[in-house]
Amino acid sequence: MKRVKEHWPLHTVLLLLILFTAGCYKTGSKQDLSATPAANNEQASLSGSILMLTNRIDLIENGTMQGFADQFNKKYPEATVEFEGLSNYATDIMVRLSTKDAGDVLLLPVNLPAKELSYFFEPLSEEMSTDERFKSFTAFDGKRYGLSTGTTTSGIIYNKKAFEQAGITEIPQTLDDFYAICAQLKQAGIIPLYMNYGAVWPLREWGNNMVNYMTGDPEYLNEMVHTNNPWQQHNEWGRSLGIARTLVARGYVEDELFSNNWEVSKTRLAKGEAGMYLSGNWTIRQVLDAGAASKDIGFFPFPYDNGRTHHAPLNPDWFIGVSKFSKNKELSMAWVNFLVKETAYSAESFLPVDGASEPSMEQYTEFNSYHPELVEAAVQTDAFIEMANRSKLSFATGDYIQELIAAPDLQKSFDELNDRWKEAREGQSASFQP
Question: What is the C-alpha separation between 420 and 390, in angstroms, rounded?
Answer without folding.
Answer: 9
